[in-house]
């Protein structure tokens, strides 16, 4: 899977959609809901189901990053499936605090 910056992906099992912000340092498998994501324009296969272990959800507008691989993605449409890399869950990053302006 070629996770280039700006490439658009979607979950194979839920409504989640994602945009790659920063690519991984090495090849990885990005998954949502326990299954590998598919290109945005591809049809969802009808035989896959959401994994209970990966059903924490993904929130629109949140960035999900993995410090180990360097991959960072933006969730553009919320879904029931949570994100993982090679089966290892990744979480949303905290937003950066803006400096106070006086």
Structure, described:
With 102 residues, the chain is an all-beta fold. The protein has one domain (8-89). The chain is built from no helices and nine strands. The radius of gyration is 14 Å and the shape is globular. The model has no long low-confidence stretch (mean pLDDT 93).
Put the structure in a nutshell:
This protein is mainly beta and 102 residues long.
Sum up the structure in keywords.
102 residues; mainly beta; five-stranded antiparallel sheet; four-stranded antiparallel sheet; 29% strand
Order of helices and strands: EEEEEEEEE
Q: Provide the helix percentage.
A: under 10%
Number of domains: 1
Strand order of the largest sheet: 5-1-2-7-6
How many β-strand runs? 9
The major beta sheet can be summarized as: 5 strands, antiparallel
Topology, pairings included?
Elements: E1 8-10, E2 17-22, E3 30-32, E4 35-36, E5 38-39, E6 63-65, E7 72-77, E8 83-85, E9 88-89
Antiparallel strand pairs: 1-2, 1-5, 2-7, 3-4, 3-8, 6-7, 8-9
């Amino acid at each position: 899977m070629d996770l280039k910056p700006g490439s658009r992906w979607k979950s194979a099992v839920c409504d989640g959609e994602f945009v790659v912000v920063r690519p991984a340092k090495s090849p990885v498998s990005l998954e949502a809901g326990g299954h590998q994501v598919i290109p945005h324009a591809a049809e969802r296969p009808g035989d896959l189901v959401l994994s209970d272990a990966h059903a924490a959800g993904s929130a629109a507008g949140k960035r999900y990053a993995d410090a180990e691989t360097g991959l960072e993605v933006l969730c553009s449409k919320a879904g029931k499936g949570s994100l993982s890399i090679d089966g290892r869950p990744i979480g949303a990053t905290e937003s950066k605090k803006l400096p106070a302006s006086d």
